Amino acid sequence: MARAVLVTALCYFRRMDLFEENNRHIEIAEGAQLLGGFATAAAPLLLENVATIATQAPFRHLLTPGGHTMSVAMTNCGRLGWISDRKGYRYTATDPSTGKPWPAMPAAWFDLAQRAAAAGGFKRFTPDACLINRYSPGAKMSLHQDKDEKDQTAPIVSVSLGLPAVFQFGGLSRQDPVQKHRLQHGDVVVWGGPARLAYHGILPLKEGHHPLTGASRINLTFRQAQ
Ligand code: MD3
Ligand code: FE
């Protein structure tokens, strides 16, 4: 009897630990709220949706204005999508590779992004674009700022799925020192306030296997582009 009570109590506290671990809410910098595990429950559905979206708007490696091919494969959903080519970076209403409008943003995605933004302190977030990034081992994203959105007082909400990655977060100048953070499956980050225009990037993805994505990492970034 005493043993059963002890085992039950230990299991309870162990679960509590896991619960706390999966629900970390940390301010990683002023305006940058990490909601650990916020999207873990939704992840299987999100990944199914990504597969469907990719049948309509295939992942592709975009060209930078400087003529380099990006190592990250990208597609979009929503009324607008982010693209890059020799002419520059911008949002478009149609996918240049098909000529068709970008696939609609699933209602559950919009909802998740709004709930995350609210949890991060932004009550009125209405994303009209979601950039979907796919990393294979070795793929990276160099330090950059996200400046192509019209209203830079609106936050960006990012959702990490699959393999973990190391994220670099700097300041308003490229030369500012960077902090490193691990982004794991299910993690959501709300980037607003002074963090919104900070330089950031992703270090080359390490090899690995994730049960839901295999040897890849998928990142969703919800944006209010217009
Ligand atoms: C910090 N994506 O798509 S998500 C991007 O994991 C991008 O694929 C990375 O940077 C990725 O532009 C990082 C986290 C993120 C997204 C937007 C931010 C961090 C941000 C905007 C401002 C500051
Ligand atoms: Fe970015």
Can you identify the CATH superfamily? Alpha-ketoglutarate-dependent dioxygenase AlkB-like
- The 3D shape can be described as globular
Main pleated-sheet profile? 7 strands, antiparallel
Question: What is Rg?
Answer: 18 Å
What number is the mean pLDDT? Answer: 92
Q: Give the CATH level 1 class.
A: Mainly Beta
Please write the string of helix (H) and strand (E) elements: HEEHEEEHEEEEEEEE
In quaternary terms, these chains amount to single chain
Which structural category fits the helices and strands? alpha+beta
pLDDT < 50 stretches: 1-20
Number of domains: 1
Task: Output the number of helix runs.
Answer: 3
Strand content: 25-35%
Bound molecules: N-(carboxycarbonyl)-S-(naphthalen-2-ylmethyl)-L-cysteine, fe (iii) ion
Question: Top keywords for this entry?
Answer:
Jelly Rolls, binds fe (iii) ion, 226 residues, globular, alpha+beta, binds N-(carboxycarbonyl)-S-(naphthalen-2-ylmethyl)-L-cysteine, seven-stranded antiparallel beta sheet, 21% helix
Explain how this protein is built.
This protein has one domain: Jelly Rolls (Sandwich). The protein has 226 residues and is an alpha+beta fold. The protein is built from 3 helices and 13 strands; from the N terminus they run H-E-E-H-E-E-E-H-E-E-E-E-E-E-E-E. The protein has a 7-stranded antiparallel beta sheet, with helices on one face. The chain has helices spanning 2-22, 43-56, 107-119, and strands at 25-29, 32-35, 73-78, 81-85, 88-92, 129-135, 141-144, 156-162, 165-169, 179-183, 188-191, 200-202, 217-223. Strand 4 and strand 5 (88-92) form a beta hairpin. Mean pLDDT is 92; it is low at 1-20. The longest helix is centred in the N-terminal third of the chain and has 21 residues, at 2-22. Bound molecules: N-(carboxycarbonyl)-S-(naphthalen-2-ylmethyl)-L-cysteine and fe (iii) ion. N-(carboxycarbonyl)-S-(naphthalen-2-ylmethyl)-L-cysteine binds at residues 131, 133, 141, 146, 156, 158, 189, 191, 195-196, 198, 200, 202, 219, 221. N-(carboxycarbonyl)-S-(naphthalen-2-ylmethyl)-L-cysteine binds next to strand 6, strand 8, strand 11, strand 12 and strand 13.
